Amino acid sequence: MNQYLGQSSKSKQSQTTISRRQFLSSSVATVAGLSMVSRLVADEEKTDLATNASKALIAISYDLEMSAGYPIKGKPRNAYPWDHQKGNLNDETKQYTVESCRIVKEAGGVLHSFLVGQVLEHKNVDWLKQIIQAGHPIGNHTYDHVRITAKNPNDIQYRFQRAPWLIKGKTPAEVISENIRLCELAMQQRLGIKPAGFRTPYAFANGIADRVDLQEMLLSLGYTWISSQYRGPSNVNHKNPTKADFDAFIATHKQHQPYVYPTGLIEVPFSPPMDVGAFRARSWKLDDFLQLIEKSVLWAIENRATYDFGVHPSVMYVEDPEFKTIKLICNLVKTAGDRAAIVDLGTFARRARQQYEKQNQKRAQQKSVNNEKCL
Ligand SMILES: [Zn+2]
């Protein structure tokens, strides 16, 4: 059993789980049955990891899209067509993603990608099939990289500013909902998979806490968790970050733990720093970035918390061509032994759900004790 598949075998609960797994593995012989069994086993392993509060959960997540201002730094961000063609991935971005997945899997983890549906218009999508085959989950990032909070047609996506006829006669809410469905449809038809979660294009300081309509729309589309929240520190030094700047980032990690909105939808924030913020906006050097990532992962391990390293391969292949950052993360998790694991973001969501249900049970018990006192 590799590192990702769980290290909690000493606990009674895990012994029970393993015997269930052994039973499942030995009791079904058909090919279809075996595939169902492997899904059940993977499901149980994720539940084990989510339940084990003594373990920090670390994720590596990639948004599969092109990024303004790349690949040639120094050129004005409008020198490339990416704002209108987010899914027109270049070969370097695809290769970087495939190699990253290989590195993370070798370290016993998975890499969670979020796909802009436009990518599936490319002639060849074998590289994505290869990733899926290796067990890496892929989530929905909308078809055209739309801003789901938009209330005005002009704010939905640059593409629709230039070609408004594509959304003529539809409300922004209809365009957004259809754009999410379109990505699902493309993933099902071209890749044969359902999306593993949803990440909003762009990020919002409070997630979508103040947009109950969007939470309900996503729940009605079948999503139990989303990733929409990011709030980096303000007033951080440009170009040459200091220890105080790093501390300011670390102080935000507590606010980036997964939680449940009152509607029941789970929010899985992605953790600062973001690659575009560090490299494009602040012009950091890779060494500074690496220092902060190391401190961040160590903070998560120390606090048995979650940390999602969410970046863009279209940026990282330019800024970190030798994969130093993900290799660093894999090494830190390996060194942590039983105290950490590299998991998908669905496991973050499971942990949030479990904690939420535990708190609700506690509240209900407390309420019944208080009621008894009043009798
Ligand atoms: Zn994006």
Automatic annotation (TrEMBL):
Protein's name according to its UniProt entry: Polysaccharide deacetylase
Gene3D superfamilies cross-referenced by the UniProt entry: Glycoside hydrolase/deacetylase (3.20.20.370)
GO MF term list: hydrolase activity, acting on carbon-nitrogen (but not peptide) bonds
Lineage: Bacteria, Pseudomonadati, Planctomycetota, Planctomycetia, Planctomycetales
Species per Swiss-Prot/TrEMBL record: Gimesia aquarii
Classification via Pfam families: Polysacc_deac_1 (PF01522)
InterPro entries: Glyco_hydro/deAcase_b/a-brl (IPR011330), NODB_dom (IPR002509)
Domain NodB homology: 91-206
UniProt record, GO biological process: carbohydrate metabolic process
